[in-house]
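pipeline: protein-struct stage 2 | run 1193 | Diacylglycerol kinase
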Amino acid sequence: MFSPKRVINAFKYSIQGYKSAWHTEAAFRDNVSMVGLAQIFCFFIQPEWRLWLFFGACNVMLIMAELINTGLEYLADQISTEHHELLGRAKDVGSACVLTALLFNGLVLGTIIWQAL
């Protein structure tokens, strides 16, 4: 059953997650800053709103990947601060997720710049 209180609480927890990632993860701050600047840059060089919107969706996926990676790192560090092969793999896979999103964003931005020339 729909509960407005549950929705409000979920929203508050999500905001706490953003704040936590912002305050503890330099990579998250870097990526948020980078996608903000790239989105503004894209707005000025690409008047086609569909491409601008598509690039925005790519940027959102990058931030989502970074948030998932941050969550994996929090969990792995909570489980153990010692080196464990599987925890290291989990962190590496999270990092690979972010890299994949970054590479795709670079490809899309490169295409947008190429079309604007």
